[in-house]
Amino acid sequence: MIVFDTGHSQRYFGRGIYVTTDVDEQKAIESKKSFGIDFKLVGTEDVPDEGKPLGDLSKITSGKDAKTFLNENYDIPMASLTNNDMIRAEAEKLGIVFPEWKN
């Protein structure tokens, strides 16, 4: 997610925020002469790729299964997945929930 802000106070001009996920659009906006003067880049944020198929998550019933899934499908290092809390936190960042993993 890419967020731009006019930087003007609401009192005089109103405040506008524009959000896009298109990197090419971001580059086009940043190439404008008024960039940095009339509006600025507030920040960017990685958004999980919603188009990637997750597969059958019902087969994941343990932390070990979830750890393997995240490592193989999202290249998350095993060192970042050393306990169940860390595994769940990494999955949450990706918007993934393992419905059959109870513990």
How do the strands and helices of this protein lay out in sequence?
Elements: E1 2-5, E2 17-20, H1 23-30, E3 40-44, H2 63-74, H3 84-93
Antiparallel strand pairs: 1-2, 1-3
Helix pairs in contact: 2-3
Query: Within the largest sheet, what's the order of strands?
Result: 2-1-3
Q: Using the alpha-carbon principal axes, give the shape.
A: elongated
Radius of gyration: 20 Å
Low-confidence stretches: none
Write the H/E string, N to C. Answer: EEHEHH
What percent of the residues sit in helical stretches (DSSP H or I)? 25-40%
Measured between the Cα atoms of the first and last residue, the distance is 33 Å
Average predicted confidence as pLDDT: 79
What's the domain count?
A: 2
Task: Quote the beta fraction.
Answer: 5-15%
Structural class: alpha+beta
Our count of helices gives: 3
Quick one: how many beta strands?
Answer: 3
Main beta sheet? 3 strands, antiparallel
Walkthrough of the structure:
This protein is 29% helix and 13% strand. With 103 residues, the chain is an alpha+beta fold. The protein has 2 domains: 2-44, no CATH class; 51-103. The protein has a 3-stranded antiparallel β-sheet, covered by helices on one side. α2 packs across α3 (84-93). The chain starts with a strand and ends in a 10-residue tail after the last helix. The model has no long low-confidence stretch (mean pLDDT 79).
Task: Briefly characterize the structure.
The protein is α+β, with helices and mostly antiparallel strands and 103 residues long.
